[in-house]
Amino acid sequence: MNSRNHKFLLLLAVAFMAVFPLLAGRSDGPLTVVTQARAQSHVKNPHGDYKEDCSLCHRADGWKPAKISKKFDHEKFGVPLQGAHASVACTQCHTSLNFEMAPTACVDCHADVHNAELGSDCARCHGTRSFIDRNDQIRMHRLTRFPLAGAHQTLDCEMCHRLAAPGSLSYVNTAADCASCHMSDYNETTSPNHAAAGYSQDCTGCHNEQSWDRAGFDHNQTAFPLTGMHASTACENCHVGGVFTGLPTACVSCHQSDYDGTVNPQHAGAGLPTTCEDCHGTRSWSGGDFNHAVTGFAINGAHVGLPCSDCHLNNVFTGLSGTCVSCHQSDFNNTTDPGHVATGFSTDCLQCHTTARWTGATFNHATTAFPLLGAHLAVACNDCHAGGVYAGTPEACIACHQADYDGTTNPNHAAAGYPTTDCLQCHGMASWAGASFNHATTAFPLTGAHLSAACADCHINNTYAGTPTACVGCHQSEYNGTTNPNHAAAGFTTDCQPCHTTTRWDGATFNHAQWFPIYSGTHAGQWRTCDECHTSAASYAVFTCLSCHPHSDKAKTDGDHRGRNGYSYDSNACYDCHPDGRS
Asked: Structural domain boundaries of the chain?
């Protein structure tokens, strides 16, 4: 019976005594019930100081057998039931009904095979799912100086941590070097013999943690990386007699017989160097490829397919000339179009020929003082180099174009005395016809209507030298024939440019401002025709101010100028004092 029921019975008894005090003395009354309840409440709990509700384990229809309810929370007492613990019978841990006596440390139930060497916290390596949980142990091992990897992960702990006598250490002092476990593998390996060859006992240089077999030594970490055929060559082919240290790395140390036996070209007889890598690769000895560019004579074009003996006669490889003519003298001598010998051509064949083939040479005329442009590009060499003469050929245009010069009649070059020194002033290299003279290079650039005028309009009778550049040289008739105003009668200057432009003769505009600013000040918009001021058509030097200004009253005008030095009632005098047209 639980404490809740006990309290209820006590309260019921007290209430009953208060209502029926006369019955309190009877032996079979409520007092007897209270006494019995008090006696039951002091029954000693066989489970120790356990205060949970009995119904979590016991049922009302029978005290035994006890059955733990799902509502019971074992974790509430500091020991959660997880993993394999959840299926263990209660009595395996609770050997006594006094639950306070139940042990909670792992070692209380699990014997410590580690002899307390690793501490008492089993949970560092073990889990509740299984006491031997390899994953947990591997994770724990990562915290040590020897993390488990490869085949080491599948080993039983005792393979490395051998049992020791009590008081001795099996885990803390375990060596982490390979040889401590694999010395027998090291000693028993014969291909190659590790011990005889003096191999390092640091096995990680060749072996990995997956397995001892299938070792792979990284030769690239040495001074002789393995490439090509070397990568598939057995170790003992180079490391004869199991010697692995102090071996030479020069090719000839292994390939002396290949060097001596090669006859095309003969290496020993020709005195070729024993630095085989100059011509040979590691893929195979045959098919050597010498980099001829390192000699200063790169092999390209038709030279690529030639046997070495075509140039290196009698196996002579040193001291040979690198000039073209050393091999191509006969080609040079026998070439007739043009004849190289007769014309004194340079023996530097590369000026015209390439290494692709001897025929089909193309001379780069741009390397001379006369680059070929325009129509010159299509001209045969003999057209300029007559008789096969190439040296000293004149570069002046007239040397080839005298006939063109003499035959040109529009304009007639010879009659006009055109210079023969520079045809390029008018002609281009595209063709002789269609010449275009750049008049801007003279003292008289062509603008306006002059651009469309025929040359003969100005250069009469083919006269080009000494042609006057003054306007009136061509426009005298226009000057004489102009009547509004009459240029000749008025004595206008023959420098037409102040009023006329090159666009056309008509529509001249005279800039009056340089003499009298008639367009500005008080005169702006006050005049209509030139003759309002210029009263004499015969001379525009004659003018009057009196026709427009109130000078008819001479007495008034004289009074306005009283005290003015040099005053006179005259238009020229007005201009002397009023040159800008202001009052």
From this structure: 108-159, 293-395, 397-469
